[in-house]
Write a structure and sequence with these properties.
The protein is α+β, with helices and mostly antiparallel strands and about 400 residues long. Helix content is about 50%, strand content about 15%.
């Protein structure tokens, strides 16, 4: 166990230090952003939320929705949707309809209905309809310090070949945790036989003692980081080759397959009724800001945006059954991730700790700091042992 622990550390030590430092920096940026209550338009806050609500074509919630007012309680959605459809046909004729949406814009309730690259906007107060060009959502991640560090953390600058490194390091961290705990239990058992049962003790110098203490305290945190990190690394590896296989023409942005298909006027009333009932059942106390009706991946869907301030969130329902649906369902277009978009988001939430809220983020920060210290202390201890062996005439870098 000791030999395996030492030899693996020799080969991946500086990579674990690199990942520990960059991962800790990302978590530090996130915590600072959250504790200063950054605005929804802050680049770091936008980077934190990036991809959380699905890929382009699926996500409906926008940056402005976090500060937008709620739809008035007196607003009649069931009466508004037919007016929106009527305005769309008056403007577009018999063109197929993409989605129908009611939302708050600049303090006013407006209706939006799409048809290809055209968008009809209806002001419900004045009943005035205008035709606009449908603006695509921002596909590029926001420019922020967080994304720059994340870019380094994922080793993106080094190309697809470097994507193989992170899965290997994830497995190595798992081996470190297992072998380290086995070695600790062996030492603990030996000490208890000589009636020294304390869980923590000082022996072998300052670096070794603190290395042992931190390893024990942070082993669970490091295990979670290693498992989720290995999962994400494998998915990123597959996704990297997916992007390579679907490269657009020079100068063209990468576009994901659209899962949207046209809907009909007759579908809308039933979809709206089911969506509003599902929203009331699932989140009865939340204020409503946006309702979108669409067909995505062959499924009639009702998307709502509810909540206030930073608690604003997007919910998606099957508009036929009222069932809440996830970001990965049968019939959805492929995203490039082997287990789908939703599984990738879950893995990210586990890896950065926010699946458990701020408590999980602090645990993740402790794990990142622990990995950083353990990498440095392991290098110091390894160099010290190598120096002693070299003075004894044993110059090999590896030994059993």
């Amino acid at each position: 166990m000791r030999t395996v622990h030492r030899i693996i550390s020799f080969f991946v030590l500086f990579v674990t230090l690199y990942l520990g430092v960059t991962g800790t920096l990302i978590q530090g940026i996130d915590l600072r952003t959250l504790f200063r209550h950054a605005s929804p338009t802050d680049p770091e806050m936008m980077a934190i939320r990036e991809g959380h609500d699905g890929p382009e074509g699926y996500a409906v919630i926008d940056t402005g929705d976090y500060s937008a007012a709620a739809l008035p309680d007196s607003f009649d959605l069931r009466a508004a949707v037919p007016l929106l459809v009527e305005a769309a046909h008056a403007t577009l004729g018999d063109a197929p309809l993409g989605y129908a949406e009611v939302r708050m814009l600049d303090g006013q309730a407006v209706g939006l209905i799409s048809s290809g690259e055209q968008l009809v906007k209806l002001d419900f107060a004045s009943h005035r309809a205008t035709l606009e060009k449908s603006a695509p959502r921002q596909s590029r991640p926001p420019s922020s310090l967080r994304n720059q560090v994340k870019w380094l953390h994922r080793m993106t600058p080094f190309g697809n070949w470097a994507l193989w490194i992170n899965p290997l390091v994830g497995v190595s961290l798992l081996v470190f945790v297992v072998t380290g705990l086995v070695l600790y239990l062996q030492l603990l058992s030996a000490r208890r036989r000589i009636r020294r049962p304390a869980w923590f003790w000082s022996a072998g110098g300052w670096w070794r003692s603190v290395h042992r203490w931190i390893s024990l305290v942070a082993s669970l945190f490091i295990l979670v980081i290693a498992l989720s990190g290995a999962w994400l690394a494998i998915e990123s590896l597959v996704f990297g080759y997916y992007l390579t296989a679907h490269l657009p023409k020079p100068g063209q942005p990468f576009e994901r397959p659209s899962g949207a298909t046209p809907l009909t006027d007759a579908q809308l009333p039933g979809m709206l009724t089911t969506t509003l009932a599902a929203r009331k059942s699932e989140f009865p106390g939340q204020v409503l800001k946006v309702v979108r009706l669409r067909i995505y991946g062959g499924m009639p869907q009702g998307v709502v945006v509810v909540g206030r301030g930073n608690d604003t969130q997007q919910l998606v329902f099957n508009a036929r059954t009222g069932r809440p649906v996830s970001e990965t369902e049968p019939g959805y277009p492929e995203t490039g991730f082997p287990f789908g978009w939703q599984a990738h988001q879950w893995a990210k939430q586990i890896h950065r700790g926010d699946m458990l809220g701020l408590t999980g983020r602090w645990m993740d920060l402790i794990g990142g700091l622990a990995i950083t210290y353990l990498s440095i202390s392991a290098a110091v201890m390894y160099y010290d042992m190598w120096q002693r062996r070299r003075r004894a005439g044993r110059r090999g870098l590896l030994w059993t």
